[in-house]
């Protein structure tokens, strides 16, 4: 008899508290309407000291902590760093398990990172992974311009010639494997050159022509010297004849 009366009293207490904490239409904001206490907002069961113990349908239970004190709240959407976890018994706000995550879809998939971090495939990074570039407007990592391996250095040339000079330039290239997601994202350089030393200082045939030219000049010089010597000899002979 006593147990029956105690059970009836407890049920009556729950009904009374439900009536006190019941709210009317919910406005379109993060918090539901208040019950008889300021701490009771959209809850089915609440207390003056501990706040909401259970929430109305579609609302999320959030355990708020202030120093050593904690109390329950019922929210339309979970605060920063939490996501809404729906369950048959009661919807609740669960903490994001991703470092530097501000908003998440689930415990291991972030949808917005904190300031200074870039979002990439549900994670937050200080720098984008290799092959991806940051977009500063929404702080996300997107596909960058992917290039292949460098080719071997080409032939050392200058003025389209591979000889005839001491120094030239050699070039190597690489191909664009994947274009970037946006045209505003630049690609890395695909060609570069460096100074090189020619393998042959003189071109084939150039040396013989120089030698031929040099030999011709020598012959002309010798001929000129012989002519000069002949004139000097003739003058000397004329002088000797006059003296006699």
TrEMBL record:
Protein name as annotated: R-spondin 2
Bias-annotated ranges (Basic residues): 210-233
Keyword annotations: Disulfide bond, Glycoprotein, Heparin-binding, Secreted, Sensory transduction, Signal, Wnt signaling pathway
Annotated signal sequence range: 1-23
Region (Disordered): 198-244
InterPro entries: Furin_repeat, Growth_fac_rcpt_cys_sf, R-spondin, Rspo_Fu-CRD_dom, TSP1_rpt, TSP1_rpt_sf, TSP1_spondin_dom
GO BP annotations listed: Wnt signaling pathway
Major localization class: secreted
Pfam families for this protein: Furin-like_2, TSP1_spondin
GO molecular function, one term: heparin binding
